[in-house]
Amino acid sequence: MTNSAPNPSPQHLGDNLIPYDGELYLIRQFYHPHQADLILTALLAELAWQQEDLFIFGRWHKVPRLMCWYGDPSAYYRYSGVNHTPQAWHPRLQPIRHNLEQHCGCTFNSVLGNLYRDGKDSMGCHADNEPELGPTPLIASLSLGAERIFKLHHNRHPDRLSIPLGHGDLLIMAGTLQQHWQHAIPKTQKAKTARINLTFRSILAANKRSLPRNARGYRLKSTSSSTPL
Fold this sequence. Notes:
This protein is mostly beta strands. Helix content is 13%, strand content 36%.
């Protein structure tokens, strides 16, 4: 399923958490703790988690988390300069996808999973502004497991936010947020256990063309991890 129309503005989701240049919504305990526990246990054991090595300017660097990419066959995604081919939808992901589509009022054809094994794993500052996502993507980000801090800062102004994301929380980024803000999950000594983050999104069908494999001097190699740490 692809999304041929722009995503709607999710005004029914509550108050926008940022003052301008985009939309950010937070739904606490979208999944209640018992439901979230069951989902977390299943996804830790069953998804095809991998640790990737990123080749930047002549050196390999391990990505400080495990990752996986699932979606429709056409949902190719360029991440860190490399074209990623999605794995077929896992049965555990389909009910989550359906629930988020119903809640957000749009469709998702792919999901990027990140597994933070403990507080040493992290995500650097970035924006999800790849051309495949379009200028105003709606991204639904589900958190499962250990609480982590989601940091957001504006590209041109001093505005900053720090939002604790807990077990079962849903964060929705929409509008022009990716054009004007960057976000990160920094390291922390407080998190001793795992956290999974699932970011559901829609890759535009118009961007199914082949992309340069080694664009911008980046290259990836992957090492499978059948048992997340």
